[in-house]
Design goal:
The chain is of the alpha+beta class. Among the domains are: 8-46; 54-187, Aldehyde Oxidoreductase, domain 3 (Alpha-Beta Complex), CATH 3.90.1170.40. The protein is 33% helix and 31% strand. It has eight helices and 13 strands. The chain has helices at residues 16-22, 65-71, 105-122, 153-170, 193-199, 206-212, 230-256, 260-263; strands spanning 2-13, 26-37, 54-59, 79-86, 90-91, 94-103, 128-133, 135-138, 142-150, 173-179, 185-187, 272-276, 286-291. Strands 5, 6, 8, 10 and 11 form a five-stranded antiparallel β-sheet that branches. It starts with a strand and ends with a strand.
């Protein structure tokens, strides 16, 4: 066991509508903290455990239903049940020309694997495949394919229904509908747990919420850090970005701008002998004289 100081990087990721509002995909925060290192010995036998026949994937390419069905085909199974979700060409009298999907890929794959494992705890199944397409999906093309094989049909049928309902409720995948006329819209899944919770205007205790969420998923109150309206969240994000831009501009001035004739600061570590020139259409411009 050892204690050491280390620099920790925290990455803030923005997806779907949040990405469009902020204009960026990610932000990085750095801080130092002391961590405790512990080394554990793992027995070689741990790696010898039989891996479950789970097949999860996110891909930009068109989904091949026949290949996915083949993944879950085994000699001891008498049934393969599947669900195929495709893009339809209409929504509330609007003509849809395509869908666009975006995902937090690492977390989405983890949640899809969890769905496979939960299926195995409830039903006797052999192979479980969940493939989801991201990016653009044209009309009548598949966006998600779920296939489950089992010795008898009843178990695979129930497992497929559970899989698609749970995927809609818990996997971080966002869908944008693009119309022939009018602005595209990001759509929210009605089954999504966190969306339904945030929409409730009446205050509820965490215990009440946990009782209404199926599969005994528990929300830890300590993990809920922000309770605010969409307007307030947008305001906070905008203020945060403005502060970060101001900090970056300040650092750029300190690093690049040293006008020795006026300041006489020969000890400056600035890399360019320059002076800051303010412009009407920008907050920071640097005019360089010569490179050191």
């Amino acid at each position: 066991m050892d204690k050491t100081d280390t620099q920790v990087q925290t990455t803030i990721l923005f997806f779907a509508k949040a990405r469009e509002i902020t204009g960026c995909k990610e932000l990085f925060l750095y801080y130092r903290r002391r961590i405790r290192l512990q080394l554990f010995h793992h027995l070689a036998e741990d790696n010898m455990e039989k891996k479950p026949k789970n097949f999860v994937k996110l891909q930009q390419e068109e989904l091949n239903v026949a290949e996915i069905m083949e993944l879950v085909t085994f000699p001891n199974c008498g049934a393969i049940s599947n669900f195929i979700g495709i893009t339809r060409d209409n929504f509330e009298n609007k003509k849809v020309i395509k869908l666009e999907y975006e995902a937090y890929e690492s977390m989405a794959l983890k949640e899809m694997t969890n769905i496979c494992n939960k299926i195995r705890l409830q039903w006797h199944v052999e192979g479980v495949a969940i493939h989801h397409r991201i990016g653009e999906v044209p009309i009548s093309k598949a966006s998600v394919v779920i296939a489950v094989s089992s010795p008898h049909r009843e178990e695979s049928l129930r497992a497929v229904e559970y899989a698609i309902n749970t995927l809609k409720a818990s996997v971080p995948i966002w869908k944008k509908e693009v119309y022939e006329t009018g602005e595209p819209q990001w759509k929210q899944n009605k089954e999504c747990k966190w969306t339904n919770i945030l929409k409730r205007e009446d205050a509820q205790t965490v215990a009440d919420i946990n009782e209404k969420i199926p599969n005994k998923d528990v929300i830890d109150q300590n993990l809920v850090q922000i309770r605010a309206s969409s307007k307030e969240l947008n305001h906070r994000i905008k203020s945060f970005i403005e502060r970060k831009r101001h900090q970056v501009n300040t650092v750029n001035v300190q690093e690049f701008c040293r006008h020795s004739e006026k300041s006489g600061n020969e000890n400056s570590c600035a890399r360019v002998d320059a002076i800051l020139i303010r412009r009407k259409d920008s907050k920071s411009h640097v005019k360089g004289n010569n490179v050191k």
